[in-house]
Amino acid sequence: xxxxxxxxxxxxxxxxxxxxxxxxxxxxxxxxxxxxxxxxxxxxxxxxxxxxxxxxxxxxxxxxxxxxxxxxxxxxxxxxxxxxxxxxxxxxxxxxxxxxxxxxxxxxxxxxxxxxxxxxxxxxxxxxxxxxxxxxxxxxxxxxxxxxxxxxxxxxxxxxxxxxxxxxxxxxxxxxxxxxxxxxxxxxxxxxxxxxxxxxxxxxxxxxxxxxxxxxxxxxxxx
Length: 223
Known about the structure:
By secondary structure, the chain is α+β, with helices and mostly antiparallel strands.
């Protein structure tokens, strides 16, 4: 049984992050979950965050110990939900969750669509200038869900795996997309994974068509 901590956030304007909803707060009690996410949760840059394929962000709580070991001077920062996640659990990680996995949660069902793609706002948020690149290289990215059955949820209700629909671990998807040399076979394997998000499917297809990997610098460093 994986009982989640649940977080939502509103868009805030700051000098450090401009517009962002990364600063989330824990929610107790029942919430309604729709195809676009949890009631009361917002996303500032909807081109890259939110939408049906990215309705929820899940980050494994056990990763925070790793980040504290890497950056002990930042210990106060590395506590959920430092990465703007909606769901925090122990026991579910990139090493045992697959693209396409369906979990029941309260009245709802949610499906894993893609790893999270670290972006440059994490650098400013953490105060570590290349944090997004370090997160990407480490493979500790978390993952995103689509909502395939709406309804009410609460932190008192566990996430329960009810269907496994591909053999592509989130860990493997991260490696294929971010940390391997060009490999058309692996891109096609990833595209064949049930429920892979439209944006990731498009990115992999463009790689196959163009024969090269896109530049990560804009996403990781904002340039």
